[in-house]
Amino acid sequence: MDAPQIVIPSADAARTVNAVSDIADCRCVGAARGQRRRYGAALLLLALLAATPALAEGPALRSSMIASLESLQQQLAAGDNAAVASRAEAAAARLDGGNAADRWARALFLQLEASALARQGDSAAAAARLATARGIAEVPAARRLAWLRQEAQLRLAAGQRERGADLLTRWVEASGGDAESRWLLVRTRAALSEWQAAADSLDRLHASGSASWDADQRQLASTVYQHSGRFDDALALLGDDADSPQVWRRAAGLAQQAGDSGRAAAIWESGWRRGVLTRPQDLVQLAELHIAGGTPARAGEYLARWLADGELPRSEANLRLEAQAWSAAREHDKALAAWRALATLTGSAADWRQLAETAYGWGEWQVVLDALSQIVPADDVDRNKVDQNAAQKTGSGDSSGRLPKARLAADGRCAARWSGRNWHAGR
After folding, report:
1. Pair 118, 110: CB distance under 8 Å
2. At what angle do helices 18-27 and 215-227 cross, to 10 degrees?
3. Higher pLDDT residue, 229 or 403?
4. pLDDT confidence of 243, banded at 50, 70, 90?
5. Which range among 8-17, 135-144, 240-249, 364-373 shows the weakest confidence by mean pLDDT?
6. pLDDT for the residue numbered 204
7. What's the CA gap between 267 and 261, in Å, rounded?
8. 181 contacts: CB under 8 Å, gap ≥ 6
9. Which of 53, 106, 108, 373 is the least crowded, having the fewest Cβ atoms under 10 Å away?
10. CA 149 centroid distance within chain
11. Could you tell me the residue ranges of all domains in the chain?
């Protein structure tokens, strides 16, 4: 049987979804808080870049060019962003196609224009200017690498997440990166549902020996590992959240969605053993997951214990689940006993038929007779004919009550001999 789909908790369920909220912030680029955070980070980085002494890094510049660049830097510091953007754009256009020094100066003017545009909130245009500046051959490698990082963060601020993530990955790989940028990359990849890439970034963070992760980072990492199918790694990061039922339900639900019912059952059982998933519906869910995950005997054992101890009520649904578990495990005696208990409780002809069919399939002839007697008047059952049929089926004179495995539903003639009627009618 297939286990009912686990309901994964919604994103507002207490502390269990801090990581999901972080990812939602990345996805909702237009959300005010996320936008302010990314925009502010881009401004800070570009302001630092504008103030650094980059003039001496490339080919020597004439004094008038240096004066022009320094003048624009001062205007930028004064907040005259529109004027800086206009003047820098014009200067860069004039220098296009010049000599090596001119091309280096053009790159610096483009960088100043990018800073001004970012301050005006036009992150996409600012990123485009930095991309052009990075492509100029005279830009030193260290400066090109710094601008690569800035462009990546501007792309992210502009909502260009795929491009931003790709550029940030290039920067991390080329520079070694830092913990802040690596976490930004993890959040971005998660926002793009690129779970394996996010997990790879987490692995590199762990391998780098970075400082211990805070609670929000652990929750984000756990979410990433769950989505990438690494449930053991995810559960190892739970920390205080290990006592939250929502966390265990989420982890098991993701495993089930990934088609791994066995893993979902193992996760749910871990939560149960920890004393977290102990409600009656949690116990039923555990049994259903074990049946779907290929361990029905364990489901049968648990259900038998819970029903005996009163942890689960002896309801029709619970008795039926136990019977299904033992049947799936091919535990003949336990399955037949469970089906009999269910049929006795409900008095339903359908349940007695199910017992008869199950017993017939396993050659339990006496059980078939007993079940049929509950839905067919006793006088209608010719026991001599039944015994003769048993002997014919076994190929001998033995009518001890055990028959070879067969499908009762496919043998209408045998059914007719038992009762003089087709007891399958109405099924």
Report:
1. no
2. 80
3. 229
4. confident
5. 8-17
6. 87
7. 10
8. 149, 168, 171, 172
9. 53
10. 29
11. 29-175, 279-346, 348-427
Residue 281, judged by CB atoms within 10 A of its CB (0-12, 13-18, 19+), counts as exposed
412-419 helix and 383-394 helix, angle to the nearest 10 degrees: 150
Residue-wise pLDDT tens digits, 312-369: 999 999 999 999 999 999 999 999 999 999 999 999 999 999 999 999 999 999 999 9
Where is average pLDDT lowest: 93-107, 167-181, 204-218, 260-274? 204-218
Tokens of 69: 């660049």
- As to burial, measured by CB atoms within 10 angstroms (0-12 exposed, 13-18 middle, 19+ buried), residue 425 is exposed
What is the mean predicted confidence (pLDDT) over 384-406? 47
Instruction: Give yes or no for a contact between 200 and 220, defined as CB atoms under 8 angstroms apart.
Output: no
Residues 113 and 84: beta-carbon distance below 8 Å: yes
pLDDT at residue 29 above 70?
no
Instruction: With beta carbons less than 8 A apart as the criterion, state whether 265 and 295 touch.
Output: yes
Report which of 122, 126, 100 is spatially closest to residue 113, judged by C-alpha positions.
Answer: 126
Check pLDDT > 90 for residue 411: no
Q: What is the pLDDT of residues 40-91, one digit of tens each?
A: 444 444 444 444 446 667 788 989 999 999 999 999 999 999 999 999 999 9
